[in-house]
Amino acid sequence: MDFTTEFKDILSKFKLPAEPVSTEPFGAGHINRTFLVTTKKGRFILQKINTEVFRDPDGLMKNYAAVTDYLAAHGAETVRLVPTKTGETYLKGESCYRLLHFIENTVTYQIAEDAETFRKVGFAFGDFQNRLADFPADTLTETIPHFHDTPKRFRDFLDALGKDTVQRAATCRKEIDFVLSHKNTYSTIADALADGSLPVRVTHNDTKLNNILLDEKTKDPRAVIDLDTVMPGTMLYDFGDSIRFGASTAAEDEQDLSRVHFDLSLFAAYAKGFLSAVKKTITPKEAELLPVGAYMMTVECGMRFLTDYLSGDTYFATKYPEHNLIRARTQFALAEEMERSFELMSRQITEILK
Ligand code: ADP
Ligand code: GN1
Ligand code: MG
């Protein structure tokens, strides 16, 4: 069955302005299944919510509606939900679906193509943080508990390694050793949050470059998307995850590791944009730990890819059997270079904040 026929019934439950003409897979997200729906009166995004990952879809959609309403009320361009015919924010059932207005004339990138665009993206994610500064954090459901709790991610990794359910440990000894040998670095951010030296803020937590829509002509950021993980966190997560994905010379799943490098000039460009947005609120401790944020999000993401590889690819969408392992390798290559560049990164931050 083609997608247009498959989703006809689902789409008929939403308040669409016209009949769907076509439905086709869209985008490069790893978690939800995303489709572009075309009608004679506009285009839409249909998402099948991954309820293995988001165990509480009600809580998730309550967050989603509250955050998007708040952003829209404060003048930001954001994703807008199309309600169901019964007035719900999403379609509940054995599978859960939501429908969004398609934001036209925009593009997303899988790799940062130029420093100036990446600087603007940095500003936009910093600005996103500012806009949510007064959002009542205690009303947000933790959609994925311990999302960026790196020590917990390490324990999950050890668990998957111990079980070795699909007998893949023997095929990735080098990567396993990388994770084990860096274990004394994993608690820096968690400790600073626990002792109160880092402030808790409402953060996006998944700030990779393909989670922001850019104007297709000017490349100016238009809307931050993928708001499923907006939760209390630290600024370091948002800064760090953007650097992890965008300050690399290659794609997240590049197979040729000789092409994967941490690019300090892309780091500096992003930092310039981000810091110009948050300069009034950033604390000295946050500024000091920004390079650690970049390293931590990278090593943590690599650990998560490797954990999923060891568990038989149950979490991230994959296109071939070694996909998660390939992704883990790029992350560890980047994390290693970042470790060696801490001082250079810190110098850039100090320079920008002068
Ligand atoms: P996932 O959680 O799987 O990453 P996303 O919400 O990030 O899902 O959506 C996947 C991709 O779909 C995005 O990277 C973007 O390219 C596209 N997309 C999502 N929502 C919209 C929208 N409202 N308008 C235009 N494109 C969108
Ligand atoms: C996932 O949903 P998506 O594809 O934008 C993941 C992030 C990872 C990222 C790695 C909810 O992001 O945490 O950093 O893949 N999202 C979730 O590319 O787990
Ligand atoms: Mg996404």
What small molecules does this complex bind? Answer: adenosine-5'-diphosphate, 2-acetamido-2-deoxy-1-O-phosphono-alpha-D-glucopyranose, magnesium ion
Major sheet size, sense and barrel closure: 5 strands, antiparallel
Task: Please report the number of helical segments.
Answer: 12
The helix content, as a percent range, equals 40-55%
What structural class is derived from the secondary structure elements?
alpha+beta
Tell me the strand percentage band.
5-15%
| Run of helices and strands | HHEEEHEEEHHHHEEEEHHHHH
Which value, in Å, is the CA radius of gyration?
20 Å
The best one-word shape is globular
- Oligomeric state of the chains in view: single chain
Q: Tell me the span between the first and last alpha carbons.
A: 60 Å
Q: Residue ranges: pLDDT <50 for 5 or more in a row?
A: none
> Spatial order of the strands in the main sheet?
1-2-3-5-4
Q: Provide the residue-averaged pLDDT.
A: 97
* Overall strand count: 10
